Predict the 3D structure of the following.
Amino acid sequence: MSFRWFIYYCALFGGWAALLGWLLGRWLAPETPLVIQASVKGVFLGLTVALALGLVDALWVLTMRQAGQVALRAGTAVLVGCLGGWFGGLLGQAFFGWTDFSVFLVLGWTFTGLLIGLSIGVFEALSSLLRREDWTGARRKLLNGLLGGAVGGLLGGILSMALRGLWKMLFAARPQELLWSPSAIGFVVLGICIGLLIGLAQVVFREAWVRVEVGFRAGRELLLSKNETTIGRAESCDIGLFGDPGVDPRHACIQLQGGRYVLIDAGGSSGTYLNEARITQPSPLRSGDLIRVGRNVLRFGERSQRRAD
């Protein structure tokens, strides 16, 4: 999918997932004490929103042919999201109960959003560290998600509290429902804000990316968040180009070397072309360069030119 659709789906699925989290919380959270109730509801919010955004992110990078990797990415996101929801709800309600300052509720949702944003990059970061690879790209994705999630949680929390105050004024909500009224609307607003800001942060602060101009899933745009991004028709490839016999299972890769990206051919018979010139050795990439693999054409993009060390 394109960057624009990625942002749209993050906001859309974030809102619907938050509504589902609210429904689960209303059904399954205990009535008292309020701190535990808030924690459990926070868990369901973190679980559903992190799952939704984890799936959007995974399916942006992968396809359903790579269901195992999609499940691992989404599962990792869920674990971190649950932790964020639990601690955000717990701390926010606890401090609110002690001080009666609504700002602590907003800070609680800010913390929840922060960890949800962090969750979508955890799998890639752990994979890079376990393989002892350079995790510069994965770290950048973590930081962008953290920033977007925190700002989204803060904004969503402020809007939710504003709606809560309006709801209380208009409908005289019972004291024990103050945190959650208007709970459904507040949760949806929170989920939309978290999803929207996470998507925006990933796109606005991107460093390097590839766009499929011609070929399998034309129009798709992918962030280069790994030290090595593989291209080919094997299901394990980061940029899968299926259905083209001119593409080898592992055809080429884009590596980050010495602070800049280079294109490397894997040695297949059909070759890899950079700006219509066949490459035989690692070739530096510049923003706007065209990469041809079989019948597929990819365009490399970079926010700022890198300089080799």
